[in-house]
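Batch job 17 of 40 flagged for manual review because the log was empty.
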Amino acid sequence: MADRTNILVGPAEVFVDGTSVGWTEGGVEVEKSVDTFEKEVDQHFDALDIVATKWTLTVRTAFAEATLENLKIAWNETSTIQAGPPKRLGIGLQQEIPEHQLEFVGPGPNGTNRRYRFWRAKLVGSSGHGYKKDDKVIFPVEFRVLPDENKTEDERYGEVLDEQP
């Protein structure tokens, strides 16, 4: 039977390496996709089977709090933020992309909280921001979740928990 408490509405709180990034803009999106290969033969009009050749898990959001800590994450910076005054983040070049643990918590079914945990995530793509008269500064981010080979096959990316608040 249908249950309206299973229709999930509301924002999620995002944590990177166990620290909340504060307010976000536009919610949090999670996408799991698969590339496939279709086994075809001349003697058959359709594929005999379809097998996975690559899985990809991506998490997207935008940090609405324009702190140096959030900018450090959004720009893949590895330098330490200096307390100052003035407070300072160096902007550098490095080949290694920092790895993060990623987590977000939002409303779950039947009054629970739904918690997504990803063991290994790296920021991919670009993140830019602008200062505008009629808009706020946000840092859009896209994380590519990578498998943790030390976990069992059914939880290599992470886990989803429905837990009591």
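Reviewer: the log was empty due to a logging misconfiguration, but the result itself is present. The chain has a mean pLDDT of 94. Unflagging and moving on to job 18.
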